[in-house]
Amino acid sequence: xxxxxxxxxxxxxxxxxxxxxxxxxxxxxxxxxxxxxxxxxxxxxxxxxxxxxxxxxxxxxxxxxxxxxxxxxxxxxxxxxxxxxxxxxxxxxxxxxxxxxxxxxxxxxxxxxxxxxxxx
Length: 120
Description:
Blueprint: E1 4-9, E2 20-23, H1 34-37, E3 41-42, H2 50-56, H3 63-75, H4 78-88, E4 93-98, H5 107-116
Parallel strand pairs: 1-4, 2-3, 2-4
Helix pairs in contact: 3-5
């Protein structure tokens, strides 16, 4: 992995140093236009399953189990993961965009940790 991976809320202002902007949510974020989002790729298929997303419900006490369940989904989702790995193999920065309010406990953070081999 050559690119620098980072995460950012899609509602935050796009910046020149975001590099390649990749939305990793299954559902389009409310209240933001495609132009304002300024995304390069929308990888719906790498997002958590609808069932897992609804179960998690952004409840902090479910975070550890959500991470494990989502990692299991990523393990079984090689086609979507390989697309993101190819993007991350390039030079520069890849910014994983998410809509959740919690900047620390969201699917983009799990994806980033999964791709970099970091344990959270």
